[in-house]
Amino acid sequence: MNPIVNPILRGFNPDPSILRVEDDYYIATSTFEWFPGVQIHHSRDLIHWKLIGRALNRVSQLDLRGVPSSGGVWAPCLTYDNGTFFLAYTIVFNHDGIFWNVKNFLVTARSILGPWSEPVFLNSEGFDPSLFHDDDGRKWLVQNVGDFRGHGGSIAVQEYSLLEGRLLDKPVTIYQKSQFGDPEGPHLYKRNGLYFLVVAEGGTGLGHAVVVSRAPAVLGPYELDPEFPTLTSRGDMMLELQKAGHGSLVETQKGEWYMAHLCARPLPTRGVCPLGRETALQKMIWDSDGWPRLATGGNKPLVLVPAPDLPEQHDVPEPSRVTFATDKLNVHFQSLRVPLDERALSLTERPGFLRLKGQESLDSQFYQSLVARRQQSFCFAASTVVEFEPVSFKQMAGLVCYYSTLGFHYLKVSHDDRVGKSLEILTRDNDQFQWHLKERVNVEGWSRIYLRAEVNYDQLQFFYRKTDGDWTMIGPILDASLLSDEHIAGWAFTGAFVGLACQDLTGRGLPADFEFFDYAETEPATTRGLATGRTH
């Protein structure tokens, strides 16, 4: 049996909530400002995982207009009871200052693939709601409760009535914090008559950790594990998996236990994490005192983990090229904040092409015409071909490496008053904007323009060409590491994406047509550009 190789969900898949239903395993992860919301992966062996969809695909379930970058959907909890899937989630509308405006919701479905119900509003007490189904039939909501007075947050529990669709009584605080502080991401489990509270503490950065407490009753009192934390990377910068925390537990059909948790892999040369926070698995055992422990000993996350005693499954590898001769986008694509309806996107107006209709700029928090997929490797190449006829410098379309409204590198076709249709490169680095070409590259008369991005750890090089053949480098080597949690100013919890975009700041909605999108992981390059093209 091959081992589990961590991270199992690579590239921006944080806050995992793991669930087994008979022989099927599912993990739900946070999506923040990206739409549709809540990624769901499936496995049968805990080794191989496949993205099968996203739960929140209607504006009635998820309206993210105006939410800041790294706002939106935080820490979903996926559970199952009596033939029904339950998904609890938070929408964070702002996270600046001391007052956070949040709302917690619950949706249900008979199938993991949906359709998921209209949301039931739960409360606005805090974030990271988790639903626990007790064996007596009662249901309990456990969540973080924020405190803007500077006292730190806490964990509270409150009974939920499925029949009435509402919370009962008042929330009861069951946990304050360990010495790490900042408790969040709670999950409740029951084993041998005891209730186990699994909590994330220490913030979501290098001090992150998983802390476990237990009690004889749902409402406590809870006893802190005397050997806490159960899992952490803090204090050991030599570990490949950093930021280990925010765990959830699952038991296999054969009684083996595993913990899904978030982690991050810093760039070896820069110490920042453009892939964002990812998901890993660790094998667990229960010690003689009844506490969960890493099966391999200690409390540090491992890259190679013993696989469960289950038949190994193998999925067919996905092709690197996505074409648009279809009625729906590839599952790996997402948009920002809102679904792209016919005002912004069409797969039918020009069959075989993705048509993006220009909307607002890349720093808009409302309506962008952008579709992108996660960067899932330190080294990759992405390419496309675009047909676009701008007549104004305010009309742009092209290939973008994107982190948030505060960070992106954009190779775009636009219009220059001197040369007409041209190529240019724009970078946003927090509050700084930089144009990288002294002279725009003239592509006047080109009906089709091929665009390419190659990322090699912290280096990004753009390329272009008119037809099949050698690529021509355009612009300097750019700093890919600025598209990372650590570099972006303020709260930054997502990860780097690469995708297609179109803007029309005149309001005319000029369209750009893309025929394909290639994304392929590559081997690390020692010398940039010599094998792939000419320098412009």
Question: Quick one: biggest sheet?
Answer: 9 strands, mixed
Low-confidence stretches: 527-536
CATH topology name of the largest domain, in short, is: Jelly Rolls
Average pLDDT level = 95
Structure annotation, total helices: 0
The CATH architecture of the largest domain can be named as: Sandwich
**Share of helix, binned:** under 10%
Strand content: over 45%
How many strands appear in the DSSP assignment? 42
The tally of domains stands at 2
Broad shape: globular
User: How far apart are the first and last residues' alpha carbons, in Å?
Assistant: 50 Å
Identify the quaternary structure here.
single chain
* Computed structural class: mainly beta
Specify the CATH class of the largest domain.
Answer: Mainly Beta
Q: Report Rg.
A: 24 Å
Describe the model:
The protein contains no helices and 42 strands. It has two domains: 14-226, 5 Propeller (Tachylectin-2, Chain A); 321-535, Jelly Rolls, CATH 2.60.120.200. The model is unreliable at 527-536 (pLDDT under 50). Helices cover 0% and strands 48% of the residues. The strands form nine sheets. Strands 26, 28, 29, 31, 37, 38, 39, 41 and 42 form a nine-stranded mixed β-sheet that branches. Strands 30, 32, 33, 34, 35, 36 and 40 form a seven-stranded antiparallel β-sheet that branches. It is mainly beta. The protein is globular and about 75 Å long.
